[in-house]
Design a protein that fits this description.
Elements lengths: L6 H9 L8 E4 L7 E7 L2 E8 L7 H14 L17 E2 L5 E6 L12 H18 L15 H14 L6 H17 L9 E3 L8 E4 L8 E5 L6 E3 L1 H12 L14 H14 L6 H28 L13 H21 L1 H9 L3
Antiparallel strand pairs: 1-2, 2-3, 3-5, 4-5, 6-9, 7-8
The chain binds 2-acetamido-2-deoxy-1-O-phosphono-alpha-D-glucopyranose and magnesium ion.
Magnesium ion binds next to loops.
Length: 352
Amino acid sequence: MTGAPSDSDLARALAAFPELVHPVAVPLAGGLIHHTFAVVAHDGEYILQRVHPLFAPVVHDNIAAVTDHLRRKHVPAPRLLTSSAGQPWADLGPEGVWRVMTRLPGVSFHTVQSPSQARAAGAQVGRFHAALTDLEHTFKIVRQTHDTPTHLATLRAAVAEHTGHRLHADVAALAAEVFAGHADLPAPGDVPLRVGHGDLKFNNLLFSGTGPKDQLTPTGIIDLDTVDRMPLHRELGDAWRSWCNRGGEDQAVAAFDLEIFAASLEGWLSALTAPPTPHERRALVHGVEWISLELTARFAADALRECYFGWDRARFPAAGEHNLLRARGQWALHQATLATRDARAELLLAGT
Ligand code: GN1
Ligand code: MG
């Protein structure tokens, strides 16, 4: 099961969800992991996805627990449909595991449009966190998205194994910088775990309404495969590495926008019911440094392995070239985070 699903796979997947009446599906671009389709059925709109095989189907137990809890608290969240096999997914054997969710209204943006949009998005994330503070769910272990030691080990193994790869020399040079950079970072230390999203890339937030596009209202957060208990610094570090890098992920240069950082922090804090402890705030200073380094390692490893992140066939000859560019972009961002550490610390530690 590689490449895009065929029309007959798509038809079988749609037929596996009895709630869908007269569905019509069209591909939806944007995510890097799953194959996604927008579905219009007689009673509404849905999202159909062929789930990447690295995500075990038990991921849907986590998604269902979180989305049910959010909806009970009136925070918009998609609802997973039940398949004819009675599960929130359909296993089509060699054609993969598929799921259908109701579609939240709204549009997404690859990059933050303005500080006011960042403030509103931060508040949406704060409401998401606040609503989940009392969730009692034992999360199934699916895939540790933010496990820096494992991602560094994967990169080390990829560099050792793929010596004949056309990009090997470039990736090996970047990897050496990443390993040295990691050794220079402070260690995270122990902080409590909180229920988080795990992938707060900016285009996983939806906005709707009328008026200028930077003044739309956040309406929900999608891409829930990574929900879990996690330290706040991983959750927000991942948000900030995406939101504060306004050039996006597809260029080798990067800057860290402190105005966006300050606005999103303010919005997030304003909506929380359990504010971060002084210890969490100190770890939050480094979160974006750890996550930009980690994502450099992930993209660099995939530049050689070419098996995880989706890529743009119109702009690059193969997955490796796109992922190497992304890795360079995250590495440039990592340098920019180091250069802004003091300014971020001042904002985060104010009043502690
Ligand atoms: C993936 O699924 P998507 O495109 O929202 C990835 C994130 C990376 C991001 C980089 C489950 O996010 O961890 O930060 O690409 N999601 C997963 O663009 O691996
Ligand atoms: Mg996404």
